[in-house]
Design brief:
279 residues; alpha/beta; 9 helices
Protein backbone atom coordinates (compact mmCIF):
# COMPACT_ATOMS: atom_id res chain seq x y z
CA UNK A 1 0.00 0.00 0.00
CA UNK A 2 1.33 3.44 -0.93
CA UNK A 3 1.99 6.01 1.75
CA UNK A 4 -1.16 7.89 2.73
CA UNK A 5 -1.99 10.98 4.74
CA UNK A 6 -4.29 10.08 7.64
CA UNK A 7 -6.27 12.16 10.12
CA UNK A 8 -7.50 10.37 13.24
CA UNK A 9 -9.77 12.01 15.80
CA UNK A 10 -9.34 10.87 19.38
CA UNK A 11 -5.72 9.83 18.87
CA UNK A 12 -4.69 10.12 22.50
CA UNK A 13 -5.91 6.74 23.74
CA UNK A 14 -7.83 3.58 23.01
CA UNK A 15 -8.36 2.34 19.47
CA UNK A 16 -7.47 5.77 18.09
CA UNK A 17 -4.05 5.65 19.70
CA UNK A 18 -3.43 2.07 18.58
CA UNK A 19 -4.30 3.03 15.02
CA UNK A 20 -2.16 6.18 15.15
CA UNK A 21 0.86 4.15 16.20
CA UNK A 22 0.25 1.56 13.46
CA UNK A 23 -0.14 4.24 10.79
CA UNK A 24 3.11 5.93 11.76
CA UNK A 25 5.01 2.65 12.14
CA UNK A 26 3.99 1.78 8.58
CA UNK A 27 5.51 5.02 7.30
CA UNK A 28 2.34 7.00 6.61
CA UNK A 29 1.82 10.68 7.46
CA UNK A 30 -0.61 11.52 10.24
CA UNK A 31 -2.56 14.42 11.62
CA UNK A 32 -3.22 13.16 15.14
CA UNK A 33 -5.92 15.04 17.01
CA UNK A 34 -7.06 15.23 20.61
CA UNK A 35 -8.73 17.75 22.87
CA UNK A 36 -5.37 18.06 24.63
CA UNK A 37 -2.56 17.68 22.07
CA UNK A 38 0.04 17.40 24.86
CA UNK A 39 -1.17 13.80 25.19
CA UNK A 40 0.22 13.23 21.70
CA UNK A 41 3.75 14.38 22.57
CA UNK A 42 5.23 10.85 22.61
CA UNK A 43 4.13 10.38 18.99
CA UNK A 44 5.70 13.69 17.94
CA UNK A 45 8.92 12.94 19.81
CA UNK A 46 9.22 9.54 18.15
CA UNK A 47 8.08 10.33 14.61
CA UNK A 48 8.95 14.02 14.19
CA UNK A 49 7.81 15.60 10.93
CA UNK A 50 5.86 12.48 10.01
CA UNK A 51 3.11 13.52 12.45
CA UNK A 52 1.32 16.75 13.20
CA UNK A 53 -0.47 17.02 16.58
CA UNK A 54 -3.57 19.22 16.43
CA UNK A 55 -6.02 20.28 19.12
CA UNK A 56 -9.54 19.29 18.14
CA UNK A 57 -12.89 19.39 19.88
CA UNK A 58 -14.98 17.55 17.29
CA UNK A 59 -18.10 19.48 18.31
CA UNK A 60 -16.48 22.74 17.13
CA UNK A 61 -17.10 23.32 13.41
CA UNK A 62 -14.25 25.81 13.05
CA UNK A 63 -11.82 23.49 14.81
CA UNK A 64 -12.87 20.65 12.50
CA UNK A 65 -12.20 22.80 9.43
CA UNK A 66 -8.82 23.84 10.87
CA UNK A 67 -7.82 20.21 11.45
CA UNK A 68 -8.56 19.32 7.83
CA UNK A 69 -6.62 22.37 6.69
CA UNK A 70 -3.70 21.25 8.88
CA UNK A 71 -3.48 18.08 6.79
CA UNK A 72 -3.28 20.15 3.61
CA UNK A 73 -0.79 22.61 5.07
CA UNK A 74 1.46 19.90 6.47
CA UNK A 75 1.22 17.13 3.88
CA UNK A 76 -0.63 18.53 0.85
CA UNK A 77 -3.65 16.24 0.94
CA UNK A 78 -5.83 13.92 3.04
CA UNK A 79 -6.32 10.29 2.04
CA UNK A 80 -7.90 8.65 5.09
CA UNK A 81 -10.12 10.30 7.69
CA UNK A 82 -10.94 8.26 10.79
CA UNK A 83 -13.72 9.66 12.96
CA UNK A 84 -12.89 7.77 16.13
CA UNK A 85 -13.44 10.28 18.97
CA UNK A 86 -16.35 9.47 21.24
CA UNK A 87 -17.53 8.18 24.60
CA UNK A 88 -20.53 6.46 26.14
CA UNK A 89 -21.92 6.74 29.65
CA UNK A 90 -24.05 4.07 31.24
CA UNK A 91 -27.43 4.80 32.82
CA UNK A 92 -31.07 4.07 32.10
CA UNK A 93 -32.85 6.39 29.68
CA UNK A 94 -35.08 7.54 32.53
CA UNK A 95 -32.06 8.44 34.65
CA UNK A 96 -30.05 10.15 31.89
CA UNK A 97 -30.53 13.90 32.03
CA UNK A 98 -31.30 15.76 28.83
CA UNK A 99 -28.00 17.60 29.29
CA UNK A 100 -26.10 14.29 29.26
CA UNK A 101 -28.19 12.99 26.37
CA UNK A 102 -27.38 16.07 24.27
CA UNK A 103 -23.68 15.98 25.21
CA UNK A 104 -23.24 12.37 24.11
CA UNK A 105 -25.10 12.94 20.85
CA UNK A 106 -23.17 16.16 20.23
CA UNK A 107 -19.82 14.36 20.45
CA UNK A 108 -20.69 10.95 19.03
CA UNK A 109 -22.94 12.05 16.15
CA UNK A 110 -22.51 15.76 15.44
CA UNK A 111 -18.77 15.45 15.98
CA UNK A 112 -18.65 12.88 13.18
CA UNK A 113 -20.83 15.09 10.98
CA UNK A 114 -18.68 18.18 11.64
CA UNK A 115 -15.38 16.58 10.71
CA UNK A 116 -16.84 14.66 7.78
CA UNK A 117 -18.39 17.78 6.26
CA UNK A 118 -15.08 19.61 6.64
CA UNK A 119 -13.30 16.84 4.71
CA UNK A 120 -15.76 16.27 1.87
CA UNK A 121 -14.82 19.27 -0.34
CA UNK A 122 -11.11 18.41 -0.16
CA UNK A 123 -11.62 14.73 -0.98
CA UNK A 124 -14.08 15.61 -3.74
CA UNK A 125 -11.51 17.90 -5.37
CA UNK A 126 -8.86 15.20 -5.00
CA UNK A 127 -11.17 12.63 -6.55
CA UNK A 128 -10.23 10.19 -3.81
CA UNK A 129 -10.34 9.53 -0.09
CA UNK A 130 -11.56 7.04 2.48
CA UNK A 131 -13.72 8.06 5.44
CA UNK A 132 -13.86 5.57 8.32
CA UNK A 133 -16.65 6.24 10.79
CA UNK A 134 -16.46 4.64 14.21
CA UNK A 135 -19.94 3.52 15.14
CA UNK A 136 -20.15 0.49 17.42
CA UNK A 137 -21.78 -2.88 17.71
CA UNK A 138 -24.17 -0.60 19.66
CA UNK A 139 -24.99 1.00 16.31
CA UNK A 140 -26.53 -2.29 15.15
CA UNK A 141 -27.77 -3.74 18.46
CA UNK A 142 -29.41 -1.57 21.13
CA UNK A 143 -27.34 -2.07 24.32
CA UNK A 144 -29.17 -1.65 27.62
CA UNK A 145 -28.02 1.33 29.64
CA UNK A 146 -26.64 3.19 26.63
CA UNK A 147 -29.67 4.92 25.15
CA UNK A 148 -27.86 8.17 24.33
CA UNK A 149 -24.80 6.38 22.96
CA UNK A 150 -26.92 4.05 20.81
CA UNK A 151 -29.03 6.94 19.51
CA UNK A 152 -25.84 8.64 18.33
CA UNK A 153 -24.22 5.53 16.88
CA UNK A 154 -27.35 4.48 15.01
CA UNK A 155 -27.32 8.03 13.66
CA UNK A 156 -23.73 7.58 12.50
CA UNK A 157 -24.80 4.43 10.67
CA UNK A 158 -27.59 6.14 8.76
CA UNK A 159 -25.57 9.28 8.06
CA UNK A 160 -22.67 7.24 6.71
CA UNK A 161 -24.83 5.06 4.49
CA UNK A 162 -26.30 8.19 2.89
CA UNK A 163 -22.82 9.69 2.69
CA UNK A 164 -21.47 6.82 0.61
CA UNK A 165 -24.34 7.07 -1.86
CA UNK A 166 -23.66 10.78 -2.30
CA UNK A 167 -19.86 10.91 -2.42
CA UNK A 168 -19.07 7.48 -3.84
CA UNK A 169 -19.36 8.81 -7.42
CA UNK A 170 -16.53 11.26 -6.61
CA UNK A 171 -14.15 8.43 -5.72
CA UNK A 172 -14.64 8.71 -1.95
CA UNK A 173 -14.99 5.48 0.03
CA UNK A 174 -16.87 5.13 3.33
CA UNK A 175 -16.56 2.37 5.92
CA UNK A 176 -18.52 2.15 9.17
CA UNK A 177 -16.43 0.52 11.92
CA UNK A 178 -18.42 -1.42 14.53
CA UNK A 179 -16.18 -2.49 17.43
CA UNK A 180 -17.24 -4.86 20.13
CA UNK A 181 -15.31 -5.11 23.39
CA UNK A 182 -11.64 -4.13 23.20
CA UNK A 183 -9.10 -3.86 26.00
CA UNK A 184 -8.97 -0.08 26.09
CA UNK A 185 -10.16 2.32 28.77
CA UNK A 186 -13.56 2.75 27.05
CA UNK A 187 -15.23 0.50 29.61
CA UNK A 188 -13.13 1.97 32.43
CA UNK A 189 -12.01 5.56 32.82
CA UNK A 190 -13.81 6.72 29.67
CA UNK A 191 -17.23 5.64 30.92
CA UNK A 192 -19.28 7.16 33.70
CA UNK A 193 -21.48 4.49 35.29
CA UNK A 194 -24.38 6.16 37.07
CA UNK A 195 -25.36 5.05 40.58
CA UNK A 196 -27.69 2.09 40.21
CA UNK A 197 -31.40 2.83 40.29
CA UNK A 198 -32.95 -0.21 42.03
CA UNK A 199 -35.92 -0.04 39.66
CA UNK A 200 -33.56 -1.09 36.86
CA UNK A 201 -31.43 -3.52 38.88
CA UNK A 202 -32.31 -6.50 36.68
CA UNK A 203 -31.61 -4.71 33.40
CA UNK A 204 -29.34 -1.66 33.43
CA UNK A 205 -27.89 -2.72 36.78
CA UNK A 206 -26.94 -6.09 35.35
CA UNK A 207 -25.25 -4.34 32.41
CA UNK A 208 -23.27 -2.13 34.78
CA UNK A 209 -22.13 -5.10 36.84
CA UNK A 210 -21.12 -6.97 33.71
CA UNK A 211 -19.14 -4.00 32.40
CA UNK A 212 -17.16 -3.64 35.63
CA UNK A 213 -16.31 -7.35 35.58
CA UNK A 214 -15.64 -7.41 31.81
CA UNK A 215 -13.18 -4.51 31.82
CA UNK A 216 -9.72 -5.90 31.11
CA UNK A 217 -11.15 -9.20 29.88
CA UNK A 218 -12.58 -8.04 26.55
CA UNK A 219 -11.66 -10.31 23.62
CA UNK A 220 -10.58 -7.48 21.31
CA UNK A 221 -6.89 -6.61 20.82
CA UNK A 222 -6.44 -2.92 19.84
CA UNK A 223 -3.27 -3.67 17.85
CA UNK A 224 -5.10 -6.28 15.77
CA UNK A 225 -7.98 -3.86 15.23
CA UNK A 226 -5.48 -1.29 13.93
CA UNK A 227 -4.04 -3.88 11.54
CA UNK A 228 -7.52 -4.64 10.21
CA UNK A 229 -8.20 -0.97 9.54
CA UNK A 230 -4.84 -0.59 7.82
CA UNK A 231 -5.82 -3.51 5.60
CA UNK A 232 -9.15 -2.05 4.48
CA UNK A 233 -7.55 1.36 3.88
CA UNK A 234 -5.64 -0.23 1.03
CA UNK A 235 -8.65 -1.83 -0.66
CA UNK A 236 -10.22 -0.64 -3.89
CA UNK A 237 -13.63 -1.85 -2.70
CA UNK A 238 -13.74 -1.76 1.12
CA UNK A 239 -16.85 -2.87 3.00
CA UNK A 240 -19.50 -0.34 3.99
CA UNK A 241 -19.69 -1.97 7.42
CA UNK A 242 -17.02 -3.83 9.35
CA UNK A 243 -17.82 -5.36 12.76
CA UNK A 244 -14.61 -5.66 14.79
CA UNK A 245 -14.18 -8.56 17.19
CA UNK A 246 -15.76 -11.99 17.55
CA UNK A 247 -18.35 -10.63 19.99
CA UNK A 248 -19.39 -7.88 17.56
CA UNK A 249 -19.62 -10.27 14.61
CA UNK A 250 -21.73 -12.70 16.62
CA UNK A 251 -24.06 -10.03 18.08
CA UNK A 252 -24.61 -8.34 14.72
CA UNK A 253 -25.40 -11.63 12.98
CA UNK A 254 -27.89 -12.64 15.66
CA UNK A 255 -29.57 -9.24 15.59
CA UNK A 256 -29.86 -9.16 11.79
CA UNK A 257 -31.33 -12.66 11.63
CA UNK A 258 -33.87 -11.77 14.33
CA UNK A 259 -34.76 -8.59 12.44
CA UNK A 260 -35.29 -10.50 9.18
CA UNK A 261 -37.45 -13.09 10.96
CA UNK A 262 -39.60 -10.37 12.54
CA UNK A 263 -40.04 -8.54 9.24
CA UNK A 264 -41.15 -11.78 7.57
CA UNK A 265 -43.61 -12.51 10.37
CA UNK A 266 -45.27 -9.11 10.00
CA UNK A 267 -44.86 -8.74 6.23
CA UNK A 268 -48.55 -9.28 5.45
CA UNK A 269 -49.59 -6.55 7.87
CA UNK A 270 -46.87 -4.25 6.52
CA UNK A 271 -48.09 -4.71 2.95
CA UNK A 272 -51.75 -4.29 3.92
CA UNK A 273 -51.31 -0.52 4.23
CA UNK A 274 -51.00 0.08 0.46
CA UNK A 275 -53.94 1.35 -1.57
CA UNK A 276 -55.78 -1.57 -3.17
CA UNK A 277 -54.66 -2.43 -6.70
CA UNK A 278 -56.42 -0.36 -9.35
CA UNK A 279 -57.66 2.04 -6.67
Amino acid sequence: MKNHVWLITGSSRGLGRALAEAVLAAGHKLVATARNPKQLSPLVERYGDQVRAVALDVTDERAAAAAIQAAVDSFGRLDVLVNNAGYGDLASIEDTSMKDFRAQIETNLFGVINVTKAAIPLMRRQGSGHIMQFASVGGRVGPMGRGAYAAAKWGVEGFSEVLLKEVGPFGIKVTIIEPGGFRTDFAGASTNIAPGNPIYAATVGATARFQREYNGKQPGDPARAAAALMQIAGLEAPPLRLPLGSDAARAVEEAELARIASDKRWKELSMSTDFPLNA
